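Recall from the previous chapter that SMILES is a line notation for molecules. Here it describes zinc ion.
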Amino acid sequence: MKIAVYLIAAVLFFFGFMFVVGAQGAPERFVVGFILFAAGGVLIYLTKVQPQYTEVTHVQKIDLSGDVQLEQMKCASCGGTLDKRNLEVKAGAIFVECPYCGSSYQIEEAPKW
Ligand SMILES: [Zn+2]
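With both inputs in hand, we obtain:
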């Protein structure tokens, strides 16, 4: 991505150079060359200044009140102990899939365990 921007900037610099050199006293060509130089400079400036926030974080937090309470979590239908691996976050809701009885259900907003 960054390399592509540098390539575009290099092309802009090249054409800018060609226009300025080939201006031969024609002011509009000189202006075009200057604009190309400026555009290339702005491109490089943007890549340098812009922080590289290309990484999009797709972290789905299972926001429960700590591991201690999580260990005490029990299946609603069979009473088997559940751990983090049995939890899954779908569309912002926490789902439980019990490894003992195979039942899966959604945990309510105010869990009582
Ligand atoms: Zn169960």
